[in-house]
Amino acid sequence: MSAAEGQERILFLTGRLAEKSLRRTLGAMAAPPFEWEVRELGLSVAALMTADMIGRRLADAPGFDRIVVPGRCRGDLDPVARQLGVPVVRGPEELVDLPKFFGRAAEARDLSRYEARLFVEIIDAPQLSVEVIGQRARELAAQGADVIDLGCLPATPFPHLEEAVAHVKSLGFAVSVDSLETDELLRGGKAGADFLLSLKEDTLWIADEVAATPILIPTEAGDLASLERAMALLDHKGRRYLADPILDPIHFGFTDSIARYHALRAAHPDAGIMMGIGNVTELTHADTMGMNALLFGIVSELHIDAVLVVQVSEHARSVVREADAARRIMFAAREEGALPKDVSGVLMALHEKKPFVHDVDEIAELAAAVRDPNFRVMAAPDGMHVFNRDGHRVATDPFAFWPELGLEHDAAHAFYLGVELARAQIGWQLGKRYVQDEALRWGAALPPSAESLLEPKAPGATLAHGRRKRSS
Question: Do 93 and 135 share a domain, yes or no?
Fold first, then answer.
């Protein structure tokens, strides 16, 4: 940026991965009290910068009043400052805190846009009434679903299929019918379903009978050639479709299936592609939030158009909210050319980037200044701190405080402190931020009614179409 007369000029040093994010952050700051320039110092990760490296790679800094380096930059900066004749200071450790470093409020990130549509399955639909199907459709749409998928069952009649399709569409939702039975797919398509899951090379005739967009799958597991032949036939007819190579469970072809998605996108850069993630989220007993973050990172890199989500197992009860959050976060990071960090904390349910607001010495200083009987509760790396005018106590077990608090005859106060210490202990154990009188924040693991870090279907949310031509 050009310098304005009388304004401080600051040179920001960074690494290649953070350069775009740094420029975006500085450019978004409202009326910064300085002019700035960013210089990438020839390394990938800004946190690996050292004072010696700056001295070797930065010959001079003419016209600058100050140089700001990454907060994690190691080494003594004073010799570098003498060499360059300019003060050299460390900025914040995290880029997201840069506005605060200069006395500005942090910018709210735009999470209204996304690229991948979410198909969310209502399982066992034949066994549910039309009214229950409609209610579940409303619930799933509120969590982030773009398309309501009616999951059929093998050898199970679905006499009210047409009525269910019509009812869900009357509620304003797009509908897909998910079956391997050609009769059900044909009935669903004729009833007005928007998508049909799933057609194979030998059942493509169904697409000639209905207007619904077909989802294509391989004839046999892992048979990418049959999928590509089906795609070619529909391309020749000018029909839209989504192609799904099928994501396999871990230890049953997972890595190979990821490779198939990559190969399909490389060979067909303009084709519509779907990925169903239930084989991973449902069949892996681990927290699903990290799975969704990683899977949607792949979805974002490959510009996958649609993701089929299943929410069946109890351990996967929040996957729709998580998927909705993940697609927005990944889209925002990709559009900025940035890493998917510091965009939103909604996918960090168990841990926090900076869990402890104060260090041990700061808490001791606060405790020494207290002159009233009210208890303060804080968490720090060494445990929980409880203090008032009568003393400062530290422990890692809430029960250890009880003999010292003198609350045997004050049930209301004892109950309140018990709740706060339970929260503080959870925060200390997991590395989550605890603030007295505030509930712990669990991100997308809780519905928006309980916590609103991110509104899954915020008004004005938009499907952001990519720059490529799409087959769907």
Answer: no
